[in-house]
Amino acid sequence: QVQLVESGGGLVQAGGSLRLSCVTSRLTFTLNTMGWYRQASGKQRELVARIFPGGGREYIDSVKGRFTISRDSAKNTVYLQMNSLKSEDTNVYYCNANGLTGFWGQGTQVTVVS
To answer: What is the pLDDT of residues 45-63, one digit of tens each?
Structure first.
């Protein structure tokens, strides 16, 4: 069973920063595209950023220049560094392996207050 364990959410003021972490198994980490999604109450889950096994990265337009996805192979961990946070970034963030039909973490709440 694939497990993804997230941490790092919390409450932050607008303009502040948070770093989310997602730990998984070496096999999952090595073979899969790893991503971060987010979902607000009553809305569909959306992709925020993803990083491919070869190291390529993609971001949605609204977070480009503010968020950075990275991976640490020694720790089997994927990070999402979130800077210049805005109130509209308030969501539950989910770590993902292998896209929408893949595997999910339990979610971590990020709340940005003005």
So the answer is: 999 999 999 999 999 999 9
